[in-house]
């Protein structure tokens, strides 16, 4: 099977892989739910939180944003929430 080069996003960064948390956030940012229902003044807060979640480094050393959505469990969601609320240590 031929391998395709990584897709490049408009920003010059690699496009997120389908099914990852980063991909989910990208899709959300493009959705009517975000564009029509999240007030423009609130968007920087949403963006900051999504980036914070994407950049959490896991125990395995990879970034949470690169993990598949289906790998997120209720327990891991609680840990992510705690990291956001507690802030950096």
What's the arrangement of secondary structure elements?
Layout: H1 21-30, H2 32-37, H3 43-54, H4 74-86
How would you sum up this structure, described in words?
Helices cover 46% and strands 0% of the residues. The chain has 4 helices and no strands. It has helices spanning 21-30, 32-37, 43-54, 74-86. The protein is globular and about 35 Å long.
- What coarse outline follows from CA principal-axis ratios? globular
How many separate helices? 4
Rg of Cα set: 15 Å
Unreliable stretches covering 5 or more consecutive residues: none
In whole angstroms, how far apart are the ends?
45 Å
What structural class should be given to the helix and strand makeup? mainly alpha
User: How many β strands by DSSP?
Assistant: 0
User: What integer is the average pLDDT?
Assistant: 87
The major pleated sheet works out as: none
Order of helices and strands: HHHH
Q: What fraction of residues sit in β-strands?
A: under 5%
Which range best describes the helical content: under 10%, 10-25%, 25-40%, 40-55%, 55-70% or over 70%? 40-55%
Using brief descriptors, characterize the structure shown.
mainly alpha, 89 residues, globular, 4 helices
Q: What's the short version?
A:
It contains 4 helices and no strands.
